[in-house]
Design brief:
By secondary structure, this protein is an alpha/beta fold. Helix content is 51%, strand content 14%. The chain has helices spanning 2-24, 54-62, 82-92, 110-121, 140-150, 167-170, 175-183, 187-191, 209-215, 217-220, 227-237, 259-267, 278-299, 301-322, 326-331, 333-353; strands at 41-47, 69-75, 96-100, 126-130, 134-136, 155-159, 161-162, 204-208, 242-246, 251-253, 357-358, 361-362. The longest helix is centred in the first third of the chain and has 23 residues, at 2-24. The termini are far apart.
Length: 367
């Protein structure tokens, strides 16, 4: 059993090193924005029942000083005031356009279909897919294009800085970066050709339009519930340079409102964080749960103290890199881990039942 303890400690050290490297790599977009050229940009926003968010995003985008910018919003059968808010902004700004969605075809998931329709309508040399709940500042488009051009990327994705307000969000939303930044060295997304080093966030995905329209990735993954990760893996498989960055104050998002919504949201992609392997996900959940107890029982209090210090250090570096409260997340380690296990369990149940309601649609049903 002592060798199992050594294995658990080694796993912790590896995760700590990954978190430390991600902190040191400063994985944000550079502040300076020299552009090699000034391409036309299409900002593409799928929206379904987004009356709480869409107006704020369109207001922000309408202030952007970029000469060739079109903004297209796809209203996906919203039943609230989303359509009227979009029409209001389209009447104020000539570069804002509304597309009202058709019936969802069989075999498609709603967001994937919306993104595909948006891309077909877009005229820009750069396609930027933004979720309606994202908040952006003026510099983000130029900073993104500059980085895209400098590294000759075909795809750039960003994990927005997460805004958490309620207690339920504080014990759930940070889990995404806790997993991501402790198992995946961010710099290897661009540096390595191996598709295992892949991560992307559909809240912000920027493509070279020519590349996108040669592949039509949202159509290719029309029924994939975690299409963002599938798309970046495809690009890496094809040898198309791609990268993913962390967001700063120029791009942020309150991803979920409350605990229930956060849990349902993370259930969609919990297994994708671990290479779409249920076995690996369950193993990670079990090992990170039992490790402190096993170390204490077979190695004693000193080793347990060292192990717990390692857990705290991982949170420390992950939260610094994520620009989130370190103290708050260290204090919430235990409830966050309980929520993490609950997400795994509910994910397994939903997979068995083939039922997960998101935006009033069952995204696990047979398509």
């Amino acid at each position: 059993m002592i060798y199992f303890c050594y294995f658990l400690i080694t796993l912790l050290i590896i995760r700590l090193l990954v978190a430390f490297v991600n902190y040191l790599s400063f994985a944000y977009l550079p502040k300076t924005t020299p552009l090699i050229s000034v391409p036309s940009v299409s900002v593409l926003i799928p929206a379904r029942n987004e009356e709480e968010n869409i107006g704020a995003l369109l207001k922000q985008l309408s202030t952007f000083e970029y000469s060739m910018l079109e903004i297209i919003v796809y209203n996906d059968h919203s039943t609230d005031k989303t359509e009227s808010i979009i029409k209001h902004w389209a009447a104020l700004k000539s570069n804002i356009k509304l597309i009202n969605g058709d019936a969802l075809p069989k075999g498609w998931l709603g967001k994937n279909h919306a993104c595909h329709q948006l891309a077909q309508a877009a005229t820009g040399e750069i396609l930027l897919f933004l979720d309606a709940d994202v908040s952006v500042k003026k510099g983000v488009i130029k900073r993104s294009i500059s980085y895209l051009q400098k590294h000759e990327l075909h795809l750039l994705s960003i994990f927005p800085k997460q805004i958490v307000k309620s207690f339920g969000e504080k014990v759930s939303v940070p889990l995404m970066n806790w997993v991501l930044l402790s198992i995946l060295p961010i710099y290897l997304i661009r540096k390595s050709k191996n598709k295992i080093f892949s991560a992307a966030n559909g809240q912000f995905m920027m493509f070279k339009a020519a590349t996108y329209k040669a592949i039509w990735p949202h159509e290719k993954y029309k029924s994939h519930k975690v299409e963002d990760i599938a798309i970046i893996r495809l690009f890496k498989q094809k040898g198309l340079a791609s990268d993913t960055r962390l967001g700063d104050n120029d791009i942020s998002c309150r991803m979920y409102v409350g605990l229930d919504e956060a849990i349902e949201g993370f259930i969609k992609n919990i297994f994708q964080f671990f290479g779409n392997s249920i076995l690996v996900t369950i193993t990670f959940g079990i090992l990170t749960t039992i490790a402190p107890f096993v170390v204490y029982l077979y190695m004693g209090l000193w080793w347990l103290t060292a192990y717990l210090a390692g857990i705290v250090c991982i949170r420390f570096f992950v939260m610094l890199a994520s620009q989130q409260s370190v103290i708050q997340n260290v204090l919430l380690v235990l409830p966050q881990h309980i929520i993490f296990l609950l997400i795994i369990i509910k994910g397994l149940i939903n997979n068995k039942q083939k039922k997960l309601i998101w935006k009033d649609r069952n995204i696990l049903q047979d398509l």
